[in-house]
Amino acid sequence: MKQALLVLMAVCAWTRLAHALITGTSPYHSGMRTVSPHTHRGSSLRRQQAVTMLAEKDIDLQVLKNQAGAATKAKTLSDSTRAFYSLWGAIPIMEPYRRVVDELLTAAHFAKVDVRFTYDPIFALGFATVFDRLTDGYPPGESEKQRLFDCLAKAVDEDPSKMRGDAQKLKEWVTGKGGSSEILSAFNAAKPGDKGIEGTIESIKANPLWLYNRVWGVGLYTMMEMANTEVTQESVTEWMSALDCNYKFGGPKKCFTDYTVWSANLQRLREVQKVFKEMEIRRKKDLAEKLEARAKELQEKESKLGEPATAASTS
Fold first, then answer.
1. What radius of gyration, in Å, describes the C-alpha atoms of the chain?
2. 53, 77, 172, 301, 309 from 249: Cα distances, Å
3. pLDDT at residue 40 above 50?
4. What pLDDT does 167 receive?
5. Is there a contact between 270 and 29 (Cβ–Cβ < 8 Å)?
């Protein structure tokens, strides 16, 4: 009874944290937001700042509106969910991993259906990182875990092999540089016509419609961690400035705010995962002890059944 209660508590904690990691909220927040009398004033100010910065970049706002209006009708979250389960099949996904799947699918779906979304290797790295960290220790094994990743990627109209490949290429690119300063120099030096990762960087810098999303943010944090760069408001601002993202929608302030929530919740998730692993070890140990006791019991029964036959043959 006590162990069952611990399992239930751990599952509840995991599902709350999985939601928080992807949505960028506190797992203990009710979901209700208090609206202050200055909320709309602040929103108006941010819109005005964005318009001013776009004007400074000589970007025609009407052009952006026309591009958005020309976009095809976006698929719904229900469409993406149906696509996933049609690929996955009828096999149930055990808790708490089912909640992880739902949350990552939701985050990727809403990032992609925005007309300003552009796929790049940083998004691929973020998607792979979120998936790998939240499904660490997936009980059915690595083959089923990989199938889960493939179905998720395809459900949001991405090629899973390409996503894994792009994420790996970006990792190799980062590790091949001599730290943060060399990476930032590469960001600044990227120019039209570049190929590979440099071409990705240039496309981000040249796209006035570029939009930040949390999955992309995880990709950026992962790059910074690989480059042994402490993720602070200053370092995030420096990296996003080099990508010419500061004036765009969802800049470094939003990115760093999401990081503080991500890192704090990830630490809590590791603690929950540790509890799960300890319970799994205890479960296997209890099972082994029961099997051993059962085998010993059967052996004793066989010995007792053999004793009369032995005595009769001796007489």
1. 26
2. 11, 23, 29, 75, 87
3. no
4. 96
5. no
For residue 38, give the 3-state DSSP assignment.
coil
**If you write DSSP's letter for every residue of 4-33 in order, what string do you get?**
HHHHHHHHHHHHHHHHHHHHTS-TT--S--
**Alpha helices of 93-141 — where are they, by DSSP H?**
97-113, 121-134
Contact yes or no for 22/277 (Cβ under 8 A): no
Residue with tokens 């200055």: 38
Report whether 43 contacts 312 (CB < 8 A). Answer: no
Report the SS3 class of residue 57. Answer: coil
pLDDT for 265 = 78
DSSP 76: P
Over residues 17-27, the mean pLDDT reads: 52
* CA–CA gap between residue 260 and residue 236 (Å, rounded): 12
Query: How many C-beta atoms lie closer than 10 Å to residue 16's C-beta?
Result: 21
Contact 125, 222 (CB under 8 A): yes
Q: Does the structure show a pLDDT above 50 at 214?
A: yes
Q: Give every CB contact of residue 207 below 8 A, 6+ residues apart in sequence.
A: 118
Put simply, whether the predicted model's pTM sits higher than 0.90 gets the answer: no
Question: pLDDT (tens digit, 9 = 90+) per residue, 216-240?
Answer: 999 999 999 999 999 999 999 999 9
pLDDT range class, residue 31, cuts 50, 70, 90:
very low
Looking at every residue in the chain, the average pLDDT score rounds to: 78
Q: Give 154's pLDDT tier (boundaries 50, 70, 90).
A: very high
What are phi and psi for residue 249, nearest 5 degrees?
-75, 120
* Residue among 229, 213, 212 at smallest CA distance from 221: 229
How many CA atoms lie within 13 Å of 98's alpha carbon, on the beta-carbon side? 10
Using CA atoms in the order 144, 147, 153, 155, what is the torsion angle rounded to 10 degrees? -100
Q: Are 18 and 100 in contact (CB under 8 A)?
A: yes
Q: How many Cβ atoms sit within 10 Å of the Cβ of residue 262?
A: 21
Q: Average pLDDT, stretch 89-116?
A: 87
Question: For residues 25 and 34, what is the distance between their CA atoms, to the nearest angstrom?
Answer: 14
φ/ψ (deg, to 5) at 211: -130, 130
